[in-house]
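Trying the structure run again after the queue cleared.
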Amino acid sequence: MKNISQILKLMSKYTNAVYTYILFNDGNGASILSSYYENEIKLKLIAAFNEELITLHSLNEVALSDLKAMDKLKKESKLKTVDVSELLVNSDHKYLLIQFFKNDAPDSVNEDYLLIKSILLDALQSEETVDVKDIENQLFQYADTAILYTDRNGKKIFSNSLFNQWFGLTGSEMPSFTLTGLKFYNSNGKRIDVADYPYIKSISKNRTTSEQDLYFTDDSNTEKHFKVNSILIRDTKNEPEYVLSTFWDATKEDNIAERLKEAADNLEIVIYSSDADGKNSFAVSGSVQKLLGFNVPNIEEQRISLIRKIIPDDLPKFRGFLKNLRNGEPASVEYHVKDSDENLITIKHTGFPVKMKDKVERIVGYISNISNEKSLVEDLKKLSGRYDQLAEISDDLIFTLNSSGYFTTINNNGASLLGYSKEKIIGKHFLEFIDENEKAKIAIAFQRILNSKTPHSFIAGFNDKMERKVQLEVTAQPIMTKSNITGMLGVGKNITDQIRNENKLKELNSKLVEANRLISIERDRAKQQISVLEEINNLKNEFISNVSHELRTPLASIVGFAETIASDPELPREMITEFNEIMFTEAKRLARLINDVLDFSVLEAGEEELHKNDFDIVSALKEIVSAYSGQAFDKGIKVHNQIPESEIIIKADKDRISKAFGHVLSNAVKFTPSEGIITVIAQEFLNEVEIIVSDTGIGIPEEQIPILFNKFQKVYRPGSQLPGAGFGLASVKQIIDLHKGLVQVKSEPEKGTTVIIRLPKN
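Done. Tokens:
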């Protein structure tokens, strides 16, 4: 293990620990693996602590806290915190990290702290040397300030990501900005010479530079203000080696200062700073022009004019105010002056003496126009009298309670609402008038009002003098005096009739809802019937369209070739023979279509019963596969037969089952392109037989699989215009359903289709 002590030194640098070390315990006792401590800790204290430490057989925080030497070390070195954490624990040994701090320990989720701990743990388990400089580069990379390392010639050694981002630098290399790269300016907008750049100046002046102001304009022409600290790092010979520069973005602070000045100038108060006599002003906000009609540059010349604006009766108060400030006492005074329009206004003048060595050096304070406040106080007095009048003419219950919930005031009409006089209610508790069943609810509502300190409303059932229930909607809020709750103000509105009417309305609404529900049910039934009729009509039209198309195609061929033969008596014999074969083929196709339609209608109507007999499904399947193998061969399709040789006897209608499998196999041939593969599999189970027909054809879109077996609906596969009436698979499902079987389809476009049919043996 190498560089452990250097890593501990680096950890102490970033955690401000004054003493850091690693303990090792292999079960036979503790030993100190490595340590680092500041010079300010006495070696005698550390030695005493170490001697007692290695006597421990169990390394944990409790055992460490019992050491007498630890208490002495903490007390005499003025250490506040001890942080103990396990770095590595296994069955053979344990590593313990201990750090002493004069302040609080670092946050356990601090990213720098966790990174160094992780590197320390790797070093404990490795024999390789860890480059401490690389660790610092990792820490600097994600610092919250821009960091730049330069050598003694001003060339970059390292810059973190924030520096590159602020100054628009990309890639691992940066231009030689000492000469032609970054351009900095002073506060007057003048370009700074490269020699005056802080990281260059630190080398040339052989000293650290701090708080240098630099201005920089980025690619978007946004000016930024930076404060730069350049720390000179020396080598072992005390010669300048490199410079660590930190760039702090002071643009926001500039904006804040500007905003503060802007705010001060636009406030309705004058903020000022002057000497102890008030003769010389250090700073006065621009609002003095608005408030008193004086310009800031001329405020000192017009000081006597300002005093003359004070009415004579208030001058003694003003002089006393100035005397208190000169004596070093904060003071405040109210006086009347005439503003720039010769209107009499009330001024509140507050000052605070700033002392240095018990001598008043300057006065800071503010001057505000409180005329509106004074006017408001007078208005409040008038409003208080009007409130009393309003409370007495109101029909609502208006009351105040003390902090214990007893009535302190109530209006006459409110008391009459409960059948009492004011005198009979004042002094009694609020809950005395509440219905017994509602007292708990009202107590909770009061508690919520007191906790939130904001207005809340609740419904309360009062019992009047005749024991009749009066429902009131009460809105109440706490009465605050110097942040303390001293009572409660409330208004109660009589809603007894309203609640009675609402209950009747609810009853009528429930009946209306029931009536609407019944109407809705009948409407849904009617809509369903209409929907079924529309669907049947659409299916009928689609069926007629599909069948008409399928009938028209072979008929057109038959009629066309017949007309050709009839119209040309000299037609060669071999051409007549060819035309006859085409007409014969189309006639058979037409006959099959008609038979399919008739069979489908018979099955749909349930007019024909199944003729079930025991037969070998294996031989039947082989016949069907053989029948369609020729068509497959002509298209260049391979047919894989995985049908067992042994018999599988089932009880079913052989003709119907053969026809169903014929439809499935016909579709497989029809929708599988050249060089495709069709696989037919038959498997026997205990009570059923499973037949699988799988192809590598064009497949079926997922959204069309659910309608695949619908009556009279034709599934349109992508890129396929092959003929079909659209009810072949519907017939397959009908036949399988009549045999109590199951048919499933799994398919993906351009990957193929698999049809799975399961039939019971009996």
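The two ends are 80 Å apart (CA to CA). Worth checking whether this holds up in the mutant runs.
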